[in-house]
Design goal:
The complex is a heterodimer of chains A (405) and B (630). Chain A has helices spanning 9-29, 43-63, 66-87, 109-125, 132-151, 156-172, 177-192, 196-212, 217-240, 243-253, 262-276, 302-332, 339-363, 381-399, and strands at residues 31-34, 37-40, 100-102, 105-107. With 405 residues, chain A is mainly alpha-helical. In chain A, strand 3 and strand 4 (105-107) form a beta hairpin. Chain B is of the alpha+beta class. Chain B is built from 22 helices and 20 strands. In chain B, strands 2, 3, 4, 5, 10 and 16 form a 6-stranded mixed β-sheet that branches. In chain B, strands 12-11-20-19-18 form a 5-stranded antiparallel β-sheet, sandwiched between helices. Chain B has a 3-stranded antiparallel β-sheet with strand order 1-8-9. In chain B, strand 2 and strand 3 form a beta hairpin. Classes of the chains: A mainly alpha (405), B alpha+beta (630). Chains A and B meet through helix 6, helix 11, helix 12 and helix 13 of A and helix 1, helix 2, strand 1, helix 4 and strand 8 of B.
Chain lengths: 405, 630
């Protein structure tokens, strides 16, 4: 239960600071100023209401007895999978089936799927008497379902977040590193197939690493051959595709290829952030948002408003708070003694971290993937609630520390 | 393994990822900050929509009906608004735009689109010249040239376009409409919106403070617009004009002329009419009141109004009797003595003198009501209803216009709902048999039905669009199949009905002898339908003419205008005479004009006849009146 002494006040404070920063940025993002006239859309106070709801939910979660929390995960996960299937049949918004809408509220099932999948995978792969191979296999099978469903929405960014959190959990569950290497090797082989020199270097590094990790020669040969084969077959397969199929895949991976759609938004985000300079233009003083450059910049592109109005200093402040926040969670991992919870915490940390990176990276134009909101700062109820609950889970684990299964 | 391995790896990953972000932000904001600031302050990078040209509409001889003409529009670049009060005074003074309207546009629209906002469209050239100078004080305002529609003929079928409204914008979100764009609001403009509209192109441009393109970003970032397809209609402008002018002054009604060969509409007019061009400007309240006056000029009476058909409906009843074998060509039914007693009610014939005993041909010729009263008493209501439905006078014809109305022919179930019983309906049935009582049809349905009679009982869906023109040539059949089916009438049924219609316009005593077209064989039926709209009957006439093969079918309908034979038939006669007098011109094949042909491939031959025409056509056998009465 709630234990004042064990409660991590630092982590909770960092969470609240991030949410407050979000409200300030959202207020500005939804304000238009022309001369002495200004108009603000009501997003900011909606976000405050969402924040109050989210923080109350975290408190409730902390009060929830652990056994009940444990029981809830599996049924909630199943319901969530059904929701992910259901959302594919909802009318699309801008070509993607991601949201359920009722009474003006939007719920994105892939948000809650992230947390629930992490909790479930953590439980399954930390069971007693389970081989390493089984750990990897179960982890992948469980993650596979939501990933495929989310890819169908389509939402490449969110799927990527799942993969990263799975890898982090496998590492935390003491799966030997060569497994991880073997798992990601096909992806790297496909990527390296862009250039033959890259293929050679990658295969050499791959084999050397496997030798150092002490794998048997048979295993090394087999995995080496498979990866060389993949790298060689890839260009053949690619050239066999029709032009429009290639284009579709490339646009899926890199929305910048569609310069009139997402590419335009990214260009505008870069201009906004860059024009903020070192000190920024000041709160509410951003000009780019007034120039109709983005219809929805209070959501995925909120960081561009921060960058423009608070400059490099403000961006750094936000980055710093995020780093402190993540370090605090990383700090918590060794404190948690129950293996399942430790693995879950690693998974939660990984997904929060990758998501932050993808979003800010997209705003500054170094990551092509889109469709991922900025944690705690972007406008949006379901995202704020679920991410807060993820932090709540970590807080809860910390509250229960000392209890060894 | 060390317990904090995972935390260690995650920390390394965290540092790496945030180092990337740090470097990227440093580069963007500190190293290149002034560069981006310059872009942000002096320039706008924006997407400009390259509007696709909307398809035009032509008649069957490729003469224009609806064309695009250049227009001048006033745009607001909302990001630049400096003095909103002065702007609102200016706009109020010259264009009557209220302050609230302007605020809504500026503060609300930017959350929906990043395009410039069209404030006023179709500004006259004089106004534009007069205001150009003043625009220097308002850098946020700019005149741009665009196109608007010009409707060359007032009519009810082309419909009109208008600025897209909130509701339509939301509904067609996926279709990539611009909030500044136009959308078909009625008629063919609405029905064929998808074909006419095309697809807007887009380009990313960087413009300076004066709105000039600086060509800064990748110039290949451009999607060319795909222009809309033009429509070629079966309408003939000459005939349409003649028909439009055929309405007696002050009359309300509709005239439909269609081609028997393929079901294409040749002329389609509803009176009173309106000029669609008025919708291209802001409509003043006075004009709006004028458009909504009691005569309802906006109503398309040909397909959106359903009226009691009266005697023009009688062939439907006659055909049912013939098809069901209740009567044949020479069967004589109850003697008409000016009416017939059904149950304990006396149903009058229109002629108080009575017609005596008649066969079906004569009953049609003199339009004897009693014959049909007697006939329908031998038919069950549901059979009669099924038959009426099969004749296409109940359901919508499916013409390529939005908002078509269905007709009405009640069945047992309908009466049960309406009256709470479906017992003895003999009285109701009697009225139905002569197209009175509950029966309602649109003039268009009647036209299609008479065309089917002319074809020997073969129904073809009436339609306007023949093919598209422009970027690609698509025939109407490729866009949407035309419904065609046979009524399944026997040869003798067809013959008896056609002979009856021939007798109406040719034989002595025929009610439609005013339909007199020298040189061709005429067929027709008059109708004078009692109605709830007034004391005077609706005047109907449906008829067709046959040269060596069936030519055109004409339906004239006039609200509360009097008797069909006296009022409607002469109008139909004038139209038919005009057609026959210029038949070479009307039937001459029109080559596709040069300016269209270069956009297209090879022309195919004339389409083949689409229905089995009974050939060679014989003159109907002489009708021997059985009894001459009154």
């Amino acid at each position: 239960m709630f234990n004042r002494k064990k409660f991590d006040w630092v982590l909770a404070s960092l969470l609240i600071i991030l949410i407050m920063m979000g409200c300030i940025a959202i207020y500005s993002a939804s304000t238009t100023i022309i001369g002495k006239h200004h108009s603000t859309q009501n997003h900011w106070w909606k976000q405050i209401i969402f924040a109050v709801i989210s923080l109350s939910a975290v408190l409730l979660l902390l009060k929830l007895p652990m056994p009940i929390f444990d029981i809830l995960i599996v049924p909630l996960f199943i319901i969530n999978i059904l929701a992910l299937i259901g959302v594919l049949f909802v009318t699309d918004v801008n070509g993607a089936h991601r949201w359920f809408s009722f009474f003006g509220l939007h719920y994105q099932p892939s948000e809650s799927a992230k947390l629930l999948a992490v909790l479930l995978v953590a439980r399954v792969i930390t069971r007693e008497n389970i081989t390493e191979l089984q750990q990897v296999a179960y982890g992948f099978v469980l993650m596979f379902v939501p990933i495929v469903l989310i890819l169908m929405e389509p939402d490449f960014g969110t799927s990527l977040v799942f993969v990263f959190s799975l890898l982090a959990m496998l590492i935390a569950a003491d799966v030997p590193l060569y497994y991880i290497l073997l798992i990601i090797s096909p992806v790297l082989s496909v990527v390296s197939s862009l250039h033959w020199i890259a293929v050679v270097i990658w295969i050499l590094v791959f084999v050397l690493l496997l030798i150092r990790m002490g794998l048997s020669w048979v295993a090394i040969t087999i995995s080496g051959v498979i990866n060389v084969f993949l790298a060689l077959i890839m260009p053949v397969f690619w050239n066999g595709l029709k032009d429009y199929q290639q284009e579709r895949i490339l646009t899926f991976l890199d929305p910048m290829r569609d310069p009139l759609g997402t590419g335009y938004q990214i260009i505008q985000a870069k201009i906004a952030i860059g024009s903020g300079g070192f000190t920024g233009k000041g709160w509410l003083m951003g000009t780019q948002k007034n120039m109709n450059f983005l219809p929805e910049h209070h959501t995925d592109f909120i960081f561009s408003v921060i960058g423009e109005e608070f400059g490099f200093l403000g961006s750094m402040l936000v980055l710093t708070v995020f780093v402190l926040f993540f370090l605090r969670i990383a700090h918590a991992i060794p404190e948690i003694k129950v293996r399942e919870r430790k693995v879950a915490t690693a998974g939660i940390l990984a997904y929060l971290m990758i998501q932050t990176f993808i979003n800010i990276g997209m705003n500054v134009g170094i990551v092509p993937v889109t469709g991922v909101p900025l944690l705690f700062i972007s406008y949006g109820g379901s995202s704020l609630l679920i991410n807060s609950l993820a932090v709540g889970v970590v807080l809860k684990y910390l509250n229960e520390r000392g209890f060894i299964k | 393994m060390n317990r904090s391995t995972s935390a260690f790896y995650l920390r390394i990953l965290l540092c790496l990822l945030f180092l990337f972000l740090f470097v990227a932000l440093f580069r963007l904001q500190v190293v290149k900050g002034s560069y981006y600031r310059r872009i942000a302050e002096n320039n706008f990078v924006r997407i400009r929509r390259v509007t696709a040209t909307r398809g035009e509409i032509y008649d069957v001889k490729y003469r224009p009906i609806v064309i695009n003409i250049p227009s001048h529009d006033l745009y607001l670049i909302s990001g630049k608004v400096k003095n909103i009060d002065a702007l609102s005074v200016f706009l109020k003074m010259h264009f009557g735009i209220e302050k609230e309207e302007l605020h809504d546009l500026i503060f609300q629209q930017r959350f929906k689109t990043y395009e410039e906002i069209m404030l006023v469209d179709n500004i006259s050239y004089e106004t534009m010249l007069a205001l150009s100078e003043k625009l220097n004080y308002f850098p946020e305002l700019v005149f741009r040239s665009g196109t608007t529609r010009e409707y060359l003929y007032p009519n009810h079928f082309t419909g009109y376009v208008g600025r897209i409204n909130e509701d339509e914008f939301r509904r067609y979100r996926q279709e990539d409409y611009s909030l500044n764009g136009y959308i078909g609001k009625g008629g063919l403009e609405k029905y064929y919106e998808i074909l006419l509209r095309g697809k807007d192109g887009k380009q990313i441009i960087q413009v300076d403070a004066r709105g000039q393109n600086l060509g800064f970003f990748r110039s290949d970032a451009e999607v060319a617009p795909i222009n809309g397809l033009s429509l070629v209609l079966s309408i003939d402008n000459d005939l349409q004009t003649f028909v439009h002018e055929s309405f007696p002054a002050g009359s309300r009604g509709a005239i439909v002329v269609s081609n028997i060969k393929d079901g294409g509409i040749l002329a389609y007019a509803s009176n009173p009419s309106y000029d669609p061009n008025v919708f291209m400007q802001r409509i003043s309240p006075d004009l709006w009141a004028e458009l909504n006056r009691r005569e309802r000029p906006l109503l398309d009476r040909a397909s959106q109004g359903a009226y009691p058909p009266g005697s023009v409906f009688k062939p439907v009843t006659a055909a049912e009797g013939l098809q069901a074998g209740i009567i044949n060509r020479s069967t004589l039914l109850a003697s008409c003595t000016g009416g017939l007693k059904i149950g304990n009610r006396f149903f009058k014939c229109w002629s108080s003198g009575g017609h005596g005993r008649t066969n079906v041909v004569d009953a049609l010729r003199v339009s004897c009501d009693v014959f049909f009263y007697d006939l329908i008493s031998r038919i069950s209501l549901d059979d009669a209803w099924r038959h009426a439905v099969s004749c296409g006078v109940v359901n919508r014809t499916g013409i390529d216009l939005p908002g078509e109305r269905a007709g009405l022919y009640p069945n047992k179930e309908w009466f049960k709902k309406r009256l709470g019983r479906a017992g003895s309906l003999q009285g109701y049935k009697a009225n139905l048999s002569i197209g009175q009582g509950e029966v309602l049809t649109t003039p268009l349905q009647m036209n299609a039905f008479y065309a089917a009679i002319a074809r020997g009982g073969y129904w073809i869906q009436p339609h306007f669009m023949v093919r598209t023109l422009g970027r690609g040539r698509v025939s109407r059949e490729q866009v949407q199949p035309i419904d065609k089916h046979s009524f399944g009438w026997s040869q003798s049924t067809v013959k008896a009905i056609q002979d009856g219609l021939w007798a109406v316009t040719n034989a002595p005593g025929g009610t439609g002898r005013a339909f007199n077209v020298p040189g061709v064989t005429t067929y027709g039926k008059t109708g004078s339908a009692e109605n709830s709209m007034g004391k005077t009957t609706h005047a109907w006439f449906c008829g067709y003419i046959v040269t060596d093969k069936p030519e055109i079918v004409i339906t004239v309908f006039l609200e509360n205008a009097g008797g069909g034979g006296a009022v409607a038939a002469p109008i139909a006669s004038r139209i038919a005479n005009y057609y026959v007098g210029n038949i070479e011109r009307f039937k001459a094949p029109a080559p596709i004009p040069e300016q269209f042909r270069e956009l297209e491939g090879q022309e195919t031959d004339e389409p083949e006849d689409v229905f089995p025409i009974p050939s060679p056509h014989e003159e109907p056998a002489a009708v021997v009146p059985t009894e001459e009465t009154g």
